[in-house]
Amino acid sequence: MKKPPVSAGGLTKQKETNMTIVNQSAVIQIDRIAAETIRVPIVGTAPLIVHNWSEKSKRQMLEAQQGKKRLKEARDPQAEFEAAFYRIIDPASGELSYGFPVTAFKAATVGAARFYGKDISMTALRQLLFMRGVLTEGDPQQLVAIEGEPRMREDMVRVGMGGSDLRYRPEFPTWSAHLEVTFITSSISRQSVLSLIDAAGMGIGVGEWRPEKRGEFGTYAVDQSKTVEVLS
Fold first, then answer.
1. Separation between Cα atoms, residue 34 and residue 29, nearest integer Å
2. Range of the domain at 99
3. How many CA atoms lie within 13 Å of 124's alpha carbon, on the beta-carbon side?
4. Backbone angles phi, psi at 96, to 5 degrees
5. For residue 115, is it within any domain?
6. Are 98 and 88 within 8 A, CB to CB?
7. What's the total number of domains in the chain?
8. In Å, how far are 7, 81, 132, 174, 180 from 89, measured between CA atoms?
9. Is residue 10 part of a domain?
10. I want to staple 50 with a disulfide (CB 3.0 to 4.6 A). Which of 63, 170, 193, 195 is the partner?
């Protein structure tokens, strides 16, 4: 019986051929994730109340944690009102405009998953869509530009163990914005993303006293009078 030819490495030609086929079939090819970025216009359906932590409040909190005695200072409502804004600084002109954390809109959209039962989970949604804001020297976090004219509002709030205090914060009676959203097209459709944004605005909201926190402020909807832009 004729023996099969043996290579210099001690393997038969047949075994070498089989190993080549195995090695070729073991090559893994992964395609890029298909994604789309859209710019979604939203319009406020209730006033937006803004409350950013001022530098004064953060300083007082630090001093309290360090055991330093807090000196009583005269209240300045106008200064407290101005300090409660989220600011966007134009890098070219230095002009200031108003913003709101993009993370708040992302959280609201993810939270809207609970309105759709088991069709989609919040955990999955966090990994399927992403929102982008603008990052400037005006604030250390990404902000969504808010269009509207603010006014000062004075509210009595409960603090500590049954105490009360006055808060001076900006309120946008009418407002609008654009959300830049990137989503995985193989896992969720554009219409589903728009539906989630709409549901988030109606049932969760953003800002102080939003529906999620037993309030009726900070609600919004996808602006049907404007076009959703496809950016990429």
1. 15
2. 33-230
3. 9
4. -100, 140
5. yes
6. yes
7. 1
8. 72, 18, 17, 22, 19
9. no
10. 170
> How many residues make up the chain in this entry?
232
* Helix ranges, 92-209 (H): 102-111, 122-126, 190-203
**Rounded Cα distance, 122 and 113, in Å:** 6
| 135 CB-near residues (< 8 Å, 6+ apart) | 141, 142, 143
Tell me the C-alpha distance between 152 and 154, whole Å.
7
| pLDDT by 10s per residue, the chain, length 232 | 555 555 555 556 665 555 555 555 688 999 999 999 999 999 999 999 999 975 565 555 555 665 676 667 788 999 999 999 999 999 999 999 999 999 999 999 999 999 998 888 999 999 999 999 999 999 999 999 999 999 999 998 887 777 888 999 999 999 999 999 999 999 999 999 999 999 999 999 999 999 999 999 999 999 999 999 999 9
Scan for tokens 């654009």, then name that residue: 178
Q: Tell how far CA 132 is from the center of its chain.
A: 7
Give the Cα separation of 194 and 191 in Å (integer): 5
Pair of tokens at residue 78: 């106008």
Residue 7 placed within a domain = no
